[in-house]
Write a structure and sequence with these properties.
The chain is α+β, with helices and mostly antiparallel strands. Helix content is 33%, strand content 25%. It contains five helices and ten strands. The strands form two sheets. It has an eight-stranded mixed beta barrel with strand order 3-4-5-6-9-10-8-7. About 4% of the residues have low confidence.
Length: 258
């Protein structure tokens, strides 16, 4: 009798433990699904926001002239948010976003143009840079999003052998001028890397800095002349293993906006 009773109690405990394990397992599964849905909805909200902004404030043309590829309505954009200081467009790609400036590196890390929380954040200019893009070296940050939004497609420069040849140029457009940059270097680097210094003037130190960018590059672009008197822009995004991936371009043309 005692053995039967112990067997029944053991069976009850096993069933009870199984139910607990099953309940915990289902809770984990449903929590994961809910989290995934939340992330996807956040992505979709951000994508729709910038799609609407692009439709309302940007005009693309089929022109072969880089100066006429797109025009930006900064009057409308700055009414949405006066922190808009420019627009970035990597030619031939989906990277086409307003550039925000808060004077630090936190303001738009996880906030969109409406200053609402967004996992994708915004494309924003380094806080130590001047907002009018007159520095010798400007740094622009953007998240490496899984859905390839923001700076998510920059990774293609190092994963696709033909990508660089087909996407060598990007534009920075401000209310006063349009600038075109040619990419001469890109590589993975540490978050505390030398890359994140912002030299402000023509100097031997800046010339050495540019040389180091070329030395570390995954591509050989010695045919692209870059001098200390030039202006360069660094695009920075997250990479694997807590590293950063940076893309560097030199300004090759500029045109005033009427």
């Amino acid at each position: 009798m005692n053995e039967d009773k112990e067997l029944k109690e053991t069976t009850k405990k096993s069933i009870f433990n199984y139910k607990i394990i099953l309940a915990v397992g289902l809770l984990i599964v449903f929590s994961s699904i809910a989290g995934l849905v939340y992330i996807i909805m956040g992505y979709e909200k951000t994508n729709q926001l910038y799609a609407n902004i692009t439709e309302s404030n940007l005009e693309y043309t089929a022109s072969t002239s880089w100066q006429d590829m797109l025009d930006v309505d900064f009057d409308s954009l700055t009414k949405i948010n006066p922190d808009v200081v420019g627009w970035i467009y990597v030619e031939g790609t989906d990277i086409s976003y307003p550039i925000m400036y808060s004077g630090d590196d936190e303001g738009y890390l996880r906030r969109d143009i409406n200053k609402e929380y967004a996992k994708a954040g915004s494309i924003f200019l380094e806080g130590y840079n001047l907002p009018d893009f007159t520095d010798s070296h400007n740094i622009i940050y953007g998240h490496n999003m899984r859905n390839l939004s923001m700076f998510g497609t920059l990774k293609y420069y190092k994963s696709n052998d033909n990508y660089y040849d087909e996407h060598k140029y990007f534009q920075i457009i401000t209310p006063n001028k349009k600038m075109r940059f040619e990419i001469f270097s890109y590589f993975d680097t540490d978050p505390a890397s030398f890359v994140y210094t912002v030299p402000y003037s023509d100097s031997p130190e800046f010339e050495e800095y540019i040389g180091t960018l070329k030395t570390n590059s995954y591509i050989d672009a010695d045919d692209i002349a870059v001098k200390a008197s030039d202006q360069i822009v660094t695009l920075s995004t997250c990479s694997s293993s807590e590293m950063r991936f940076t893309v560097h371009g030199v300004m090759i043309d500029v045109e005033k906006v009427q």
